[in-house]
Amino acid sequence: MDSCRFLTGQFLLAMPGIGDPRFERAVIAICAHDPDGAMGIGVGAVIDGLGLHDLLGQFDIDPGEAPDAPIHFGGPVEPRRGFILHSPDWAGQDTVEVAGRWALSGTLDVLKAIAAGNGPADWIVALGYAGWGEGQLDEEMTRIGWFNTPAEPDLIFDTDVDRRWEAAFGQAGIDPRLLVADGGSA
After folding, report:
1. Is residue 84 part of a domain?
2. What is the pTM of this model?
3. Is residue 39 included in any domain, yes or no?
4. Number of domains in the chain
5. 27: which residues sit within 8 A by CB, 6+ positions away?
6. C-alpha span between 70 and 64 (Å, rounded)
7. Burial zone of 39 (CB within 10 Å; 0-12 exposed, 13-18 middle, 19+ buried)
8. Is 183 part of a structural domain of the chain?
9. Could you report the per-residue pLDDT of 36-82, keeping only the tens digit for each?
10. Which ranges of the chain does DSSP label H, i.e. alpha helix?
11. Which HAMAP family match (predicted)?
12. pLDDT at 1 over 90
């Protein structure tokens, strides 16, 4: 496999009619993709009724300066595990830089830094992730269901969650209203 086929640092956008309600209108920020598999964080939907202050309270972290931001549905795998996608201006003990576009952290140090007001400038919190085993995402990309596009960090950090799916297609020059759920035949 050559590296141009890997999608690290890109968005996966669910096509209309993907067939899995968990991924309807999904926007997934791919954080790792190599011959062994892929991992991404969903940034296109939030978990109703759950805010950052609730999450911080579960870890006895005083919210301090942190806003009570919504928590994103990162994906169906390990839905109780937390991840923070953030700007690369901050790094902690487990931070991984993603293609120079954003960073991914998954330990309490980033939450403590956000609460203390000295964390990354931009961030979102998600529970769960989307994961693919060896060759699984590569196979899925050969079928209709997912569209990949370069990921612009402003779409994660500066675009309202309800507009990310349309905005990501728009950045690729596609009007999602023109996409159909089923392909035709000639």
Report:
1. yes
2. 0.91
3. yes
4. 1
5. 11, 12, 13, 14, 42, 43, 44, 155, 164, 165, 168
6. 16
7. buried
8. no
9. 999 999 999 999 999 999 999 999 999 999 999 999 999 999 999 99
10. 52-58, 108-116, 136-140, 153-157, 164-171
11. UPF0301
12. no
